[in-house]
Write a structure and sequence with these properties.
Layout (H helix, E strand, L loop, with lengths): L5 H5 L8 E4 L6 E5 L5 E9 L2 E9 L5 H16 L4 H10 L3 H16 L2 H19 L9 H10 L4 H20 L27 H17 L4 H13 L3 H5 L6 E2 L2 E4 L7 E3 L3 H8 L24 H10 L8 H13 L4 H8 L4 H4 L7 H23 L9
Antiparallel strand pairs: 1-2, 2-3, 3-4, 5-6, 6-7
Keywords: DNA integration, DNA recombination, DNA-binding
Family: Belongs to the 'phage' integrase family.
Pfam families: Arm-DNA-bind_3 (PF13356), Phage_int_SAM_3 (PF14659), Phage_integrase (PF00589)
């Protein structure tokens, strides 16, 4: 055949086996005819002693002239020392984002992250990342893809930003594992959404109502003594929920609670007398090492959210989270005049910036001191103004 044309390709007969017809004008450019009737344009060349072939496009989807132009481009790449067929094969073998997710979770998250973080990462992968990007090749993901996914959850800025953080870590590791070029993380320069920080503190009246409900729940048996004790300990120690939930009797010493593993590593938490009184009132169940015993023998109470929703409803605190008890502990400490650094140590913060969210509360004792001092001075000045012999100078 002197030259491939549309009419000539249309006229090619079907045979029992596939066969090739080559163009006379461009070496290596041809068409493959399949028994099924499919006809695809090909670019064929030799590289490393082997014949390599690149499928350019299907007849009918692209024209002969378009295929001829693409074939010239392929031959140009070969002339430059490239191997387009191998690049295509490598891309075909390249892992998908779904595969990267699983490798990331198995090789990194399970080995380096705490159980609570593992659950958070698993949730982000299963609910947000895999459904949107799972079928993408890792090498094909671009910044616009990440930005689009991030934008999709703009009404939930916290979740959008956490998902972006998980993706960023995944693609950093993809570079380390050789799945993407260095410096190609598509999450770079995707701005996070502003998050409205929730700083909910219980005032004195709310704390009194909560304390009354806890006492009533313990007396009427609507909640177990372990559940009631858990919330009292959270109020009195400022601990994180997981720290109290998984507290073991063996961790309690004369120095306080010696926790071997927390969000910020091993730490010692002071146990004030009020907290020790709560602990001393709790029974120690046989064969159960945990302070906050659960329904399953030998285990701790795994779900404190449900009883908390019942308790806060009885106390008239519908929007208060368990973590707000920790905020309340911190806010009371700062408002009483305790230095920020000391509050940070009590809370187990690894960075002072985390504790600085309560810094504005430190103004309260200063403001009260200023008022008291000015009131005393004003009383003296006022007494002098009414004293005989004083003259007002204008």
């Amino acid at each position: 055949m002197p030259k491939l044309t549309k009419r000539a390709v249309d006229a090619l007969p079907l045979e029992a086996k596939d066969y090739f017809v080559w163009d006379s004008q461009i070496a290596g450019f041809g068409v493959r005819v399949m028994p099924s009737g499919a006809k695809t344009y090909q670019a064929q060349y030799r590289k490393g002693g082997r014949t390599r072939r690149v499928s350019i496009g299907r007849h009918g989807k692209i024209t002969v002239d378009e295929a001829r132009k693409l074939a010239k481009e392929v031959m140009g790449q070969v002339a430059k020392g490239e191997n387009p067929a191998e690049e295509i094969a490598q891309h075909r073998r390249a892992p998908t984002v779904a595969a990267l997710c699983e490798r990331f979770f198995d090789s990194h998250v399970k080995e380096r992250c705490k159980p609570s973080t593992q659950r958070e990462y698993r949730r982000a992968i299963d609910l947000f990342i895999a459904p949107a990007l799972g079928s993408f090749k890792v090498v094909d993901v671009e910044r616009k893809d990440i930005a689009e996914l991030h934008h999709k959850f703009r009404d939930k800025p916290y979740q959008a930003n956490r998902t972006l953080g998980v993706l960023s870590k995944m693609f950093n590791l993809a570079e380390i594992w050789g799945l993407r070029p260095d410096g190609s993380n598509p999450c770079r320069h995707v701005p996070k959404y502003r998050e409205a920080k929730r700083e909910r503190y219980l005032n004195q009246d709310e704390l009194q109502r909560l304390g009354q409900v806890l006492a009533e729940a313990e007396q009427d048996g609507s909640e177990t003594p372990f559940v009631v004790a858990a919330f009292r300990l959270l109020i009195l120690t400022g601990c994180r929920l997981g720290e109290i939930q998984t507290l073991q009797w063996s961790f309690i010493t004369d120095a306080g609670m010696e926790l071997p593993d927390t969000k910020t590593g091993a730490r010692r938490i002071p146990l004030p007398q009020a907290a020790r009184a709560v602990l001393s009132a709790l029974p120690r169940l046989p064969d159960n090492p945990y302070v906050i015993a659960g329904a399953v023998p030998g285990h701790y109470a795994t779900d404190l959210q449900k009883p908390w929703r019942r308790i806060r409803a009885r106390a008239g605190l519908p929007n208060v989270r368990i973590h707000d008890l920790r905020h309340t502990y911190a806010s009371n400490a700062v408002s009483s005049g305790m230095p920020i650094q000391m509050v940070g140590r009590l809370l187990g913060h690894s960075q002072i910036q985390t504790t600085m969210r309560y810094a504005h509360l430190a103004d309260d004792p200063v403001r009260r001191a200023a008022e008291d001092n000015a009131a005393r001075l004003n009383a003296i000045v006022g007494a002098q103004e009414t004293s005989p012999g004083l003259r007002l100078v204008k």
